[in-house]
Design goal:
With 458 residues, the chain is α/β, with parallel strands linked by helices. 43% of the residues lie in helices and 18% in strands. A hairpin with an 8-residue loop joins strand 1 (85-87) and strand 2 (96-104). The structure holds nicotinamide-adenine-dinucleotide. The site of nicotinamide-adenine-dinucleotide (NAD) has 28 residues, from helix 7 and helix 8.
């Protein structure tokens, strides 16, 4: 893996040759990234379709256009974000000025997963470039078509000393993790998240870990069941359920269950037809291994809707199952098109149930009841939260996106992406024309005088 060390060394040397605060270089890189994506958008969409059966619509809104918007936003805000911010100085250091200067971190490593294989690599990259860094990008080998397209797109259009894609699997990632990057941004499962953090610790490299988990969706005291159902079904079966913020399971009261189930059936049929396998808008499971994993969660007697599968085509229909706290499907993140429904009549008990579990990446609640929605916000800790909808909180550039506890650490999107790849350097600049002697020895009785001054002048 000498080539990986070599590639890292080149980026390191190159970064050291740069003027870290120059904005023009960052702008040119972002503009080039934008035009390269626009030029190759069809290839990207095609690769996403080959990997995940992703429809053109989902590929555009959740991958290519999502990134193009992020680039535009970063270009618009770059000057503002990179400005130093003046802050107050203590009187004892008069004369002085203090400010906070955002600096690039240096060399960044971005490791992506397979479910949004374009967005989840390039979105952090936009932040890394905007903040003035170099980056090595490691796509998931599992979404192999998109990996290849991203590698061509970046490696044929950028100087490898600035941006470089290294394709590969465990061996390549392990070699990359040996290098003393200045920040590692990892998206994927928490087992590998732990490996990344352990390896990073050896070089004292800070990490952002964008992990997953079981994001709950509570439905209580709500009237407009059709809209509730459309929004849950859309969020759950987008990308065939392979979304880190998909509602993992629903908890509702027994008196809403049958109306909700009826509505789920009609939303599924409205979106994908009676047979979703014929719909161009319904995705496929990434590979056989994940297909088998999903099948292992199913107990035929619990299937309420769907459950139709064709293994060779990696087709797994939108499926709703009944479940309880003890069901196998409640043990780990589903990450596929199976929606368990749990019944609990009391909202308080439902809240207690989710509070006992790992902190999820997202939390959803559908309700007309202000008291319930306030309590959900005030009493439940999760990466993000969306009341009366699913997933769409991610589309707001002003909201940081990230997990907490088992669902990750650190956040990005919009200005937060710039911040995560920046070091906020504290600077104090003093004048030499006046030098108050208070701090110099011999100290004598100065401590009493100092306390008096601090008391009255702060
Ligand atoms: P994956 O299997 O593609 O793995 C992610 C990355 O880790 C890949 O680049 C892979 O090459 C690398 N990798 C795998 N094994 C490794 C090892 N032993 N050592 C070093 N690197 C290794 O993707 P995944 O983990 O299956 O992705 C799904 C998970 O990611 C789910 O839990 C999902 O919730 C989570 N996820 C989180 C977000 C988020 O934004 N928080 C987004 C998407 C997915």
């Amino acid at each position: 893996m000498d080539s990986i060390k070599e590639a890292f060394k080149k980026q390191k040397d190159y970064f050291e040759s740069l003027k870290p605060l120059e904005l023009e270089r960052r702008k040119l890189l972002l503009q080039r990234l934008k035009s390269v994506i626009e030029k190759h958008e069809r290839e990207i969409i095609q690769a996403l379709n080959l990997d995940l059966g992703k429809s053109q619509f989902e590929a555009v809104i959740a991958e290519t256009q999502f990134i193009l918007n992020e680039i535009d936003y970063a270009l618009k805000k770059l000057k503002k974000w990179s400005k130093s911010v003046k802050v107050k100085s203590p009187w004892a250091q008069f004369p002085s000025k203090s400010y906070i200067q955002p600096m690039p971190l240096g060399n960044i490593l971005i490791i992506g997963p397979w479910n949004y294989p374009f967005q989840l690599l390039i979105s952090p990259l936009v932040g890394a470039i905007a903040a003035g860094n170099t980056a090595i990008i490691k796509p998931s080998e599992i979404s192999s078509h998109t990996s290849k397209v991203v590698a061509n797109l970046i490696n044929q259009n950028f100087d490898p000393r600035e941006l470089l894609v290294i394709e590969g699997a465990v061996e390549e990632t392990t070699a990359l993790l040996e290098c003393p990057f200045n920040h590692i941004f990892y998206t994927g499962n928490s087992t590998v998240g732990r490996i990344v953090m352990r390896k990073a610790a050896e070089n004292l490299t800070p990490v952002t870990l964008e992990l997953g988990g079981k994001s709950p969706c509570l439905v209580y005291d709500v009237k407009n069941i059709e809209v509730v159902s459309d929004r849950i079904v859309w969020g759950k079966f987008f990308n065939a359920g392979q979304t880190c913020v998909a509602p993992d399971y629903v908890i509702t009261s027994s008196h809403l269950k049958s109306a909700l189930l009826k509505a789920f059936k009609s939303s599924i049929e409205k979106f994908f037809g009676v047979e979703a396998s014929h719909s161009n808008d319904y995705g496929r499971i990434i590979n056989q291994k994940h297909f088998e994993r999903l099948e292992s969660y199913l107990d035929e007697k619990d299937i309420l809707l769907g459950g139709v599968r064709t293994k060779e085509e990696r087709y797994f229909s939108p499926t709703v199952v009944q479940a309880s706290e003890k069901s196998k499907i409640m043990e780990e993140e589903i990450f596929g098109p199976i929606l368990p429904i749990l019944i609990e009549d009391d909202f308080d008990n439902a809240l207690k149930f989710i509070q006992k579990r790992d902190r999820p990446l997202a939390a959803y609640l559908f309700t007309d009841n202000e008291n319930f929605s306030n309590r959900y916000n005030e009493e439940f800790i999760s990466g993000g939260m969306c009341i009366n909808d699913t997933i769409v909180h991610l589309t707001n550039d002003h909201l940081p996106f990230g997990g907490v506890g088992e669902s990750g650490m650190g956040a990005y999107h919009g200005e937060t992406s710039f911040r995560i790849f920046s070091h906020y350097k504290s600077v104090m600049k003093r004048g030499l024309w006046l030098d108050l002697p208070l701090r110099y020895p011999p100290y004598g009785e100065k401590v009493g005088f100092l306390r008096w001054i601090l008391k009255y002048f702060g």
